[in-house]
């Protein structure tokens, strides 16, 4: 962080007050205590019906205090950052603690990150007019694709500047700043009684420089073309068939059907199909699954998690073998390991839980075009839609937002109405080819009432057989993300 930015974070609290608050929180016992301060400024611009409908900015400031005692957690939060307000919430959580408190260290030492990110154009330095121009450019480009059939375009711009201070009873002290910027376009096309929707989103851990690489007009055009093309698409066939998921479809499949099941809290509660399977083959040898929040500018990246643990790359599945889970401090203590930096929270109003950041299937060595040629006949998925997954069983149903038939090893006509039904672990076992490409998508992942920014990705992969068609049924433990 630049010096002036660091000062803003430090202005939230002084270390002596941190010490008092943690002493109050741990006065009746507890194995671990921490405090999380947040200052978050947001900007949102919405364009609908061809005009800017809303420009909204806001600031949210608050703190949360937590005490862990055994396997129990007490958490309270406040937006009253006075000494009295903070000591009050500390006193509340202290009543839930008992025993422990053997290794308390309040001589704070600043934790150093393992990775640094550079924000080149801070949102606060960009005028509202420039931000609105991005929205208008996306809207106009979308409408120009087919003025007669594009009936509605909704464009949303958003940026978040989040500054946090974290301190705990182990003596760790962290200051961090996260800046995220995004643009979302939804286009609706209609012809007669037929109506179709296109959706496109871009975003990153960055400032306004996002739009140096992601042109707003191209984002709007992509959403509109998807909607218009779907009007001409033929109904998707139903039945079991080979499926190729293109890299450009992003990693919705791996995020939902695999990633949530590798979060340690679900594993420990017996709500994951991957429980007690470390060291076992859970996927084809060609499949490796990685969780890496250290990737530069990705939407789910971060220097520290929300417990002050430096982010790092974690190999979850290596050459088909389950090697690790995603841990926060609480679940790591239960398994007798150290947190690998995946304790995340939506805001100071939420306690941290194990969450994904950037989750992806690692690229292989096969040319994506060769994968389509060798598949011969089946379904090519270029964009995933919504759906649901049961993390306990791994069963899933996903909508296909953009799909094509594969005929004689070539990409054929576009189809609509396709769904993919299967079981996550089974699908990973029957992946036959893994491409050399890698495509990312972004979203907000929902879990336990909290939403956090994520990216997911995969290369082009060939799946031996999936059920195409049908309707979405079953329980939704993992929620599909939309921004």
TrEMBL record:
Domain Metalloprotease TldD/E central: from-to ranges: 122-231
Domain of life: Bacteria
Pfam families named in the record: PmbA_TldD_1st, PmbA_TldD_2nd, PmbA_TldD_3rd
Gene Ontology annotations for the cellular component aspect, listed alphabetically: cytosol
InterPro entries the UniProt entry points to: Metalloprtase-TldD/E_C, Metalloprtase-TldD/E_cen_dom, Metalloprtase-TldD/E_N, Peptidase_U62_metallo, TldD, TldD/PmbA_N, TldD/PmbA_sf
Record keyword Hydrolase present: yes
Domain Metalloprotease TldD/E N-terminal: start-end pairs: 34-90
UniProt-listed SUPFAM superfamilies: Putative modulator of DNA gyrase, PmbA/TldD
GO biological process terms on file: proteolysis
Domain annotation Metalloprotease TldD/E C-terminal: ranges: 239-470
Record keywords: Hydrolase, Metalloprotease, Protease
GO molecular function, one term: metallopeptidase activity
Family: Belongs to the peptidase U62 family.
Descriptive protein name: Protease TldD
Organism annotation: Pelotomaculum schinkii
